[in-house]
From TrEMBL:
Chemical reaction(s) catalysed: tRNA(Glu) + L-glutamate + ATP = L-glutamyl-tRNA(Glu) + AMP + diphosphate
Domain Glutamyl/glutaminyl-tRNA synthetase class Ib catalytic: 18-334
InterPro entries linked: aa-tRNA-synth_I_cd-bd, aa-tRNA-synth_I_codon-bd_sub2, aa_tRNA-synth_I_cd-bd_sf, Glu-tRNA-ligase_bac/mito, Glu-tRNA-synth_I_codon-bd_sub1, Glu/Gln-tRNA-synth, Glu/Gln-tRNA-synth_Ib_cat-dom, Glu_tRNA_lig_a-bdl
Subunit-level organization: Monomer.
Sequence motif 'HIGH' region, location on chain: 24-34
Positions that bind ATP: K271
Location(s), subcellular: Cytoplasm
Gene this protein is translated from: gltX
Name of the protein this chain belongs to: Glutamate--tRNA ligase
Organism: Kocuria atrinae
Transport among keywords: no
SUPFAM superfamilies: An anticodon-binding domain of class I aminoacyl-tRNA synthetases (SSF48163), Nucleotidylyl transferase (SSF52374)
Motif ('KMSKS' region): 268-272
Amino acid sequence: MTDLQTSLHPTVSADTPVRVRFCPSPTGTPHVGLIRTALFNWAWARHTGGTMVFRIEDTDAARDSEESFGQILDALAWLGIDWDEGVNVGGPHEPYRQSQRGDIYQDVLAKLVESGHVYEDFSTPDEVEARHKAKGEDPKLGYDNYDRDLTEEQKQAFRDEGRKPVLRLRMPDEDIAFNDLVRGEISFKAGSVPDFVVARANGKPLYTLVNPVDDALMGITQVLRGEDLLSSTPRQIALYRALMDVGVAEFIPEFGHLPYVMGEGNKKLSKRDPESNLFNHRDNGFIPEGLLNYLALLGWSLSADEDIFSVEQLVENFDIHDVLANPARFDVKKATAINGTHIRMLDPQDFRNRLIPYLQSAGLVGETLTDEQNAILDQAAPLVQERMNLLGETPGLLGFLFRSDDQIQIAPDAQKQLKESAPQVLQAAVQALEPLDHFTAEPIEAALRVAIVEGLEIKPRLAFGPVRTAVSGERISPPLFESLEILGKESSLNRIKALAAQLS
């Protein structure tokens, strides 16, 4: 460690209980990068027996919304990410919404101004640019620390002009170095970070102040956050130095910067990208177990050859020091495959019950299932659990079992694959099924094989396609003979005869 870090009070000691925080701004729909950050903080807290703090950074009135705040709560509840202190839970450091902590920030600001760590900056942007030009420098270089040493007379003269100062933190003249939990030692050269604004001219404190102040007052030991915030870390360390000096902070937390989540074409995943939207994945039929597994893989793994693990295994094995610094790509195909594995691991009754919301959203069943619908679902769910990767496939795979015969419409891709022999196949199926007394899968299969495979000499792979299309309207369906049993003799024959009439 170099200059600044070693000149300060110690950072977090090894025996200090872990306290991490998740502190999103409520500015839109939760995205996978944000939730991955929540997950890693949560997993580290649970692994170490530490504390997870959840607070809301809602001081941007123009962008923050209660709708977004509600969505964040909804997302965390759906995924099972809970917290020990914070919003809706309470704790010793209330309130946990920045918009309600204004008096606390003003008190800290007053201490920082009084101690000289923060000073008033009266310069206008035009004046800063003019000074750079006068020195032959790029006028867009940014603030030049000019107001650091203004005399009281100079400050008063500016006030007399009606100027309102912003408040800036005095950056130290030493290099700033820290040991990133993910990336190792990182150093910023002295002078590479200018004095930065901590409060606007109207007195309102900025994120640059309130975020570290809250972390300090709440005793946060590890700040685990996205790589995009890495460049702000020297500012935060410098502010911690000042906060310790005025008795607000006891130590500098450790920082760990989590890798970028990349999208298609290895571009950083944008909030606007569909695969970034957490609720899109929920609507498409990801289950929490599958999505949490995949999100954990965006920077961490259980072992080199284990991609599938439970939440319990994640908590048991997660170590922030094992997170990789390299960008992680969100691969929808891989995420979907992992989700499918978790679907197959579900208890059959649990799986069956999770299908209901997708049937409801498609209008196939009402708020409460009828006895008949419950019976259909009991029989149908086991037929698709091994075939499904997303619960959103439910209406497409099972919808035909909940529709009336006259609601079956033949999908274009199913229509396209019907061969010239389809009318013959359907006629043979009717003749084979009509005499059956026991309309169950085994006799259904035997009768259709005799009539179509043997009678019409059509290969088994192609023999039953027209029947499948007739009863389901789809090219792909659950196992045919079991589906016919669930539909029953009357509906099965009605549908087969309907397509036969249509084709003739």
